[in-house]
Amino acid sequence: MSKGLLHHIEIYVSDLARSIEFWGWLLEELGYIPFQNWESGRSWKLGSTYLVFVQVEERFLDIPYHRCRVGLNHLAFHASSRQHVDELTIKLKNKEIDILYQNAHPFAGGDDHYAVYFEDPDRIKVELVAP
Asked: Beta-carbon neighbour count of residue 112 at 10 Å?
């Protein structure tokens, strides 16, 4: 294994079932496969990297996530092409998932940055960007 490659990311979520529904189809669309499954968590793997989603304990639900606070701002994934970004955008809309920055979509990241931005159920921003 190459030193420095990302091994995994673990994200605590407020509603595991809702997050599984959201992340499951998205990650599988991007080529991830189901990896681990237990009562309070689920993960998907691509190559040697995996993403883990864990139900947060009730005692920690009082302060919701906000990407402008200290911590994670967003997750950005590679798309295979601009067409892939467009196809995923249609799927997001069909699932009634709001597209962020619609007034600038698909160039919300700048003139040479072709991407779609959206949020997961806990409002974690997700980006799919074309090469």
From this structure: 6
C-alpha radius of gyration, the chain, whole number: 15
- Over residues 18-76, the pLDDT tens digits come to 999 999 999 999 999 999 999 999 999 999 999 999 999 999 999 989 999 989 999 99
The overall longest dimension of the chain from CA atoms, in Å, is: 44
Reading the block at residue 62, the tokens are 């009082």
Long-range contacts of 44-51 (CB under 8 A, 24+ apart): 48/1, 48/5, 48/7, 49/5, 49/6, 49/7, 49/8, 50/7, 50/8, 51/8, 51/9, 51/10, 51/11, 51/23, 51/27
Report yes or no: 44 and 32 within 8 Å, Cβ to Cβ.
yes
